[in-house]
Amino acid sequence: MTAVDLGLPGLGGLAGVPTTDEPQKAKDYKSDQEVRWCPGCGDYVVLNAVQSFLPSLGLKRENIVFVSGIGCSSRFPYYMNTYGMHSIHGRATAIATGLATAREDLSVWVVTGDGDALSIGGNHLVHTLRRNVNLKILLFNNRIYGLTKGQYSPTSETGKVTKSTPMGSLDNPFNPVSLALGAEATFVGRALDSDRKGLTEVLRQAAEHRGTALVEIYQNCPIFNDGAFDVLKDADEAASRLIPLEHGKPIRFGKDGEYGVVRSGFGSLAVAEVAAVGEDALVVHDAHADDPSYAFALSRLSTQDLSHTVTGVFRSVARPTYDDAARGQVKAAVEAKAPDLQSLLRGKDTWTVLSD
């Protein structure tokens, strides 16, 4: 049975979620709980950005749910005046999958960290992405385990000295965007906690997307990994390191736009000086390309040493969602008058066990 046969609803990420005519403000999304993160933590900035952004969706607060796992970022649901659940380590995406499948009327958001999502929760994450469940995942990446006091995480750079790697990490870190694209995620974006405008725009597009939307957020941990992304926030350095994406526009960056992205050998991409290659050689960003190979090549431009970091929306394509298809199957079964549970349990594939 195809997605068309199931009569799936429109592709809008908010389709089916009740809206409100009452004007909303950021304060409406602030709970009565004291925010308890370390002073200077990047989580404050992200929380404020999300609270300021949500009113623009025009949704009823009781139809918005935040599900988190375990970690510093996972305290997020306490601070949102919406429904929420602080779940268990690495399982937030699994719990959110069940919720999104059972309740089409909810806008479901997952808040997780690089340790929570990519270590114990890695398997749940990739399966959520490939299934394309209609939920949004905010992956806070500070390249460290903060809650458990500074061990290296799956995104810590090779050679990172931490409490658990006193001689330097031997692991090659994940690139979360590459991982998501390898799982054929239908929406993948990246933003910095300090870039309020860029973060809000990626969040807006993620909310409008129907399917799994993963947004990686570079976020500073001032206690155990302070300054991890400072080089991307320095006015002089950022211009030559950050590569912003805008659909339909040539990929160009630098203080005066002197650098750009061009095609290289074997389907890869590279950074070049515009004066040397000419403007016509620059790649025009296509976030809607059906084949994820192009977006994956873009993700490989981002390096461990942050000499280049791509931000914005890498990929945004339409594909039937798991939860829509599941509800369609249930509807089809009801309409076909499928056998009830007792009939199935007492069907032909049963045995009678005889005892002495």
Automatic annotation (TrEMBL):
Residues 70-217 form the Thiamine pyrophosphate enzyme TPP-binding domain. GO terms for molecular function: magnesium ion binding; oxidoreductase activity, acting on the aldehyde or oxo group of donors, iron-sulfur protein as acceptor; thiamine pyrophosphate binding. The keyword Oxidoreductase applies. One of its GO terms (biological process) is cellular respiration. InterPro entries: 2-oxoacid:Fd_oxidoreductase (IPR051457), THDP-binding (IPR029061), TPP_enzyme_TPP-bd (IPR011766). It holds the Pfam family TPP_enzyme_C. Keywords: Oxidoreductase. CDD domains: TPP_OGFOR. This is 2-oxoacid:ferredoxin oxidoreductase subunit beta. It comes from Actinokineospora bangkokensis.
